[in-house]
Amino acid sequence: MRVVCAVVLLFEAIVIGLFIPVAISLEGMEPATAASLWGGMAAVALVLSGLQKRTWAHYAAWALQAAFLFTSFLVSGAMLIAVVFVSLWVTGVVMGRRTDEMKAAHAARAEAEAAASGDGGGEGSATTASPRQTR
Question: What percent of the chain has pLDDT over 90?
């Protein structure tokens, strides 16, 4: 899950950074205001992308998604882009959790099969012969 979230944040940082010239040229926003608002958000997204292994960074990224959604009201047409990225974030979290659960279930099943198949660590239970090895 954390890898998918990090990738979404990385691409989101690029898009947030591209809001700066759009806000300046289309909305007539002051360059310092646009750069501090979306430039700061883009920098935070980059930092949080690298820190997704930490739980607090994951929750901070949720706050960043909310900030991205709310600031998209300031630039016309940005709401659609913000909704797309927030949707990607939510999808990444949901699908990532499902994938993590499937990996954990598979590992538990493999461990249970290994424990049930033999004496739990003898010579024969360490590896099983594949079809290639029996030929």
Answer: 56
* Prediction pTM value: 0.73
Q: What is the mean pLDDT of residues 9-27?
A: 92
Cα angle at 126 between 120 and 127, to 5 degrees?
140
Helix (H) or strand (E) holding 57: helix 55-71
Q: Is the CB of residue 88 less than 8 Å from the CB of residue 8?
A: yes
How large is the average pLDDT for residues 62-70? 94
CA distance 12 to 22: 15
**What does the DSSP assignment read for 58-110?**
HHHHHHHHHHHHHHGGGSTTHHHHHHHHHHHHHHHHHHHHHHHHHHHHHHHHH
Average pLDDT over residues 41-56: 94
The CA distance from 20 to 29, in Å, is 9
pLDDT value at 125 more than 50: no
Q: Are 61 and 89 in contact (CB under 8 A)?
A: yes
Sign of the dihedral defined by the CA atoms of residues 23, 25, 28, 32, in that order = positive
